[in-house]
Amino acid sequence: MPSSALAAATATEALDRVTVRFAGDSGDGMQLTGSIFTESTALASHDLSTFPDYPAEIRAPTGTTYGVSAYQINFGAQGVLTAGDAPDLLVVMNPAALMVNVAALKAGATIILDSDAFGTRAIERAGYTTDPRADNSLAPFTVVDLPITSLTQQAAQPLGLSKREAQRCKNVWTLGLVLWMFDRDRAPIIEALRTKFRKAPEIAEANVAVLNAGHAYGETAEIPALRRLPVTRSLPAPGLYRTVTGAEATALGLVAGAELTGLDMFLGTYPITPASPMLHHLARLRDWGVTTFQAEDEIAAVCAAIGASYAGKLGVTTSSGPGIALKTEALGLAISAELPLVVVNAQRGGPSTGLPTKTEQSDLFQAVMGRNGDAPIPVIAARSPSDSFDAAIEAVKIAVRHMTPVFLLIDGYIGNASEPWHLPDMDTYERAPVAFRRPDDGTGAFDRDPESLGRQWTLPGTPGLEYRIGGLEKDFSTGAVSYDSANHQRMTDLRSGKMDAIARALPPQEVCEGPTSGKLAVVAWGSTYGPVHRAVVEANRMGRAVAHIHLRHIAPFAPNLTDLLAGFDTVLVPEMNTGQLALLLQAHTLRKVERLNKVTGQPFKIAEISAAIESALES
Amino acid sequence: MNAPTNLALTNKDFESGVEVRWCPGCGDYAVLKAVQRLLPMTGLPKERHVFVSGIGCSSRFPYYMSTYGFHTIHGRAPAVATGVKLSNPDLAVWVITGDGDGLSIGGNHMLHALRRNVDLNILLFNNAIYGLTKGQASPTSAPGTRTPSTPEGSIDAPVRPAAFALGAGARFIARAVDTQQATLIDVLHRAHDHKGASFVEIFQNCIVYNDGVYASFTDKDVAPDRQVWLEHGKPMRYGKDNDKGLRLNPRTFRLEPVILGQDGVTEADLMVHDETNDTLAHMLAMLEGPDVPVPLGVLYCAPTPSYDSTVAAQQAAAPRRRDLNSLLRKGKTWVVQ
């Protein structure tokens, strides 16, 4: 186990990377603490990556291990890419949070804990038989044992808060302490607290006082284990930045895609974890031509989106695996009716209800194959929070150019995680405005563009172009209901031909790191980008020639993929499922691939990928 | 959207020319005819009408209309139609559904389209049977209905469509009989003009699998004594000799049939129809039995702002912004030099 950066650091030597994890009860405000600390980290010019890791229960019983909510952030010099394999600093608000998280720590890591929360009953409730502070089990770590609850109360009560209200500020006290440790400017955080509690100024001021108290404690307490730690502030490429989560980037990308294609957007959706934040973001964007419709169920959500596309909007539906399952029949209708539709799946652990708040990539088969009939749908995947923006734009463009539903796969990790985003200049993006069929252009509703095979988008309300459409098989040319056998063959060929047309329009698959041929290529998709890329960069630095090939397009694959993979002796496919991309790749390229699979609900660690690379190179 | 220009339309203009493939004698023909006769009266050009249907015999309807049409999937027409209406409120959106499509597999969507009050004209063809799948009992089949799926007779209690709609919060509920063209067209006209979800239950005869299911009140010889045509502000009077009526019994709080002239009953004793009264609407929706007439016409009409009009107003109040750079730069940003 690597020893902790914190333990090794001297006061003059800046650390390259630090991983901090805040953990407590699901009601302790750990997600808020983490997201405010993230904002501060970004403003301090660190690169960063975060991992909110929270339970499915909103307020699980206090003190239980299953109710522990955590927020992890990895920050430092450029190229962070993952939320960190193992924390250097763990802040825990109770024994359960310690119990759950201690095993993941680096040797020599620092643990800050609230001694007020370590009563006998709480210790037992967490599953400890002895007090972990006293039984030597924390010996590999530096433990900073502080009465955080009491210190918070002392700071907050003079401002008129009740004991209970004051105690609820303890997360902000620890935030103040951690801000001191990393030498952060408190002003923007104070501003953020005042904004968050603007409706309750007395709570806002109490939080500010508590934050300052935590900070002052670090400054004055002179506890040897508590040291200020300089971390590399390396400036990324010049430009304008903000932090963004995958959910927000996806929402913004959909709006941008609609604008670039000259459409208004209609979101039909239904609340589901972890997809709901996309709805929450889009519901506030009415000014940008967005209509959001919270339907009665997943089926109505996608059907309303299809109705909107039929009437000339960009129909979008967002969900997660179980909801996508319910939408399946309607997706077939969109294929049959040749209507554009963007379907975003924020994947979570399955099957059935599965692990609602944990991440997984196990809906790939569902996206690629999960429909009755020969019903192909293009599938693209985002690799990081900010990448979701461009992925969403591409999904929109494919949908309207080819008149087809498109799957955009993100996952719970991408959706919730945040990272700095170098804001693009939208004036540099290509516009591709849709041309609806016009009364005087002499075409039919089922005339198709010879290259894209997209049919003429014909809007109800247009005089003289009245036509009927539906899910029954229809005549290739007239669109009339047709049970003709040769016609069904032709229509099936058309639908699969559309996938070929999409493939022809794709850019060639590139190698994003390492050689373009050689001994080993690591082929991945989606949110495994971060750990895979770090591991491959590290392997190349160590003199191993390893390639990282990251797929955005999974259905169809880029046409050169088979030839590209043929240049490598071994292809290793790490996935957070039991080998779904691996199987698709084998079927497509007719070559053997090696698998690395993990379905724990947690993202890959860099070390896990590195170990698999070493093992593949040895064999 | 442009104002209609050429409105010299006839029923023929609304025929698509596609060969109609319902069974000979099916009640659906009569409804199709009524709709094609109604549409010229609506004052809207063809392109402003959209017919959205689900799955089942009646759901083939859009193919036979020369308007825009979308034959969707089983039960989901109200959801698709909601998306259409929200995306283009200028369209007159019709939902064509049946008792299986609209009240069984699609019951949830029907509930929510009604309670949201989306401006849809929902025509529920109630033949109390699954026709297209060859005659299984439906959610409106009378108990004891013998079918291939219920050889000993159906045992589940049927849903009452009008009562369901009322319970769902519908603001317009009407009933008509397929073959009674004049009143059917009247009801459809009212449904079209109503802003908000209009729910029309059409008693429709399935000649193959459930022939005569409504004969007890639709056969010509019994109809006048077994139907009461509701008119707002008028007493509830019916009968071959117009000598019957419905009176509110204040002790049972039910409508009861009476005969004018008997026991001193005069027209002044009859219940006067008030289509804005939800309590009365519920009594009418629940009224059934061999001794009472079937209420037809507009049972309930009490408009409130439609969902789509509220959405449109919200959209109109929002400034339409297109500057994506400013959208991306909302909130906290920082510059790296």
What is the subunit organization of this protein? heterodimer
**What's the number of structural domains of chain A?**
3
Amino- and carboxy-terminal Cα gap of chain B: 50 Å
The ordered H/E elements of chain B are HEEHEHHEEEHEHEHHEEEEHEHHE
What is the overall silhouette of chain A? globular
Structural class of chain A: alpha/beta
Structural class of chain B: alpha/beta
Largest sheet of chain A: 7 strands, mixed
What would the principal axes of the Cα set say about the shape of chain B? globular
Largest sheet of chain B: 8 strands, mixed
CATH architectural arrangement of the largest domain in chain A: 3-Layer(aba) Sandwich
Unreliable stretches of chain B? 1-5
Describe the structure.
By secondary structure, chain A is an alpha/beta fold. Helices cover 37% and strands 19% of the residues of chain A. In chain A, strands 9-8-10-11-13-12-18 form a seven-stranded mixed beta sheet, sandwiched between helices. The two termini of chain A are 24 Å apart. By secondary structure, chain B is α/β, with parallel strands linked by helices. Chain B has a domain at 11-221 and 305-315: 3-Layer(aba) Sandwich (Rossmann fold). Helix content of chain B is 28%, strand content 20%. Chain B is built from eleven helices and 14 strands. In chain B, the strands form three sheets. Chain B has an eight-stranded mixed beta sheet with strand order 2-1-3-4-8-7-13-9, sandwiched between helices. In chain B, α1 (27-38) crosses α6, α3 (99-105) packs across α4 (107-116) and α5 (161-168) packs antiparallel against α9 (278-286). Residues 1-5 of chain B have low confidence and may be disordered.
